[in-house]
TrEMBL record:
PROSITE patterns: CYTC, PROKAR_LIPOPROTEIN
Name listed for the protein in its UniProt record: C-type cytochrome
Leader sequence segment: 1-22
Gene3D superfamilies: Cytochrome c-like domain (1.10.760.10)
Keyword list, A-Z: Heme, Iron, Metal-binding, Signal
Amino acid sequence: MALARLAPLASLACLACLVLLAGCADEGSPPRVPGGDARQGLRLVTQYQCGACHAIPGVQGAAGRAGPALDTIGRLSYIAGRIPNQPANMQHWLRAPHALKPGTEMPPMGLTEQEARHVAAFLYTLR
Ligand code: HEC
């Protein structure tokens, strides 16, 4: 009889598992950048020649080695090893790296706010 009483508990536990799994799946998808268009971002990354310093998959000639390869930047927890990798931080980083990490060798690239949104959207496709 004890088993019969446990059954509802077990199904509750199952439900909890499913909810957790769903949560994980969600976390696994790339962060959305409101107003950001990844295709524009790809064009801008080419135009601004980020590839002079970074290896970037899908960007022709982007094989620079002065900066880290960006092939998994979309799923890294931190930008530049210490800044939580969230869309707002990424946009800020792209426009003013020194503001977030004084002394960094990444130069400010002169992106507008809107351009930074597009570039961030593109970077989050790299996983
Ligand atoms: C002159 C070389 C140079 C150029 C040009 C450059 N970067 Fe960087 N970038 C760096 C360096 C060096 C770092 C490492 C900074 C640090 O960790 O302090 C970096 C770091 C980054 C990071 C964080 C990477 C990580 O693994 O944490 C991103 C994202 C990034 N750059 C994107 C870009 C984009 C997009 C462009 C073009 C708009 C660009 N960079 C242009 C040198 C450059």
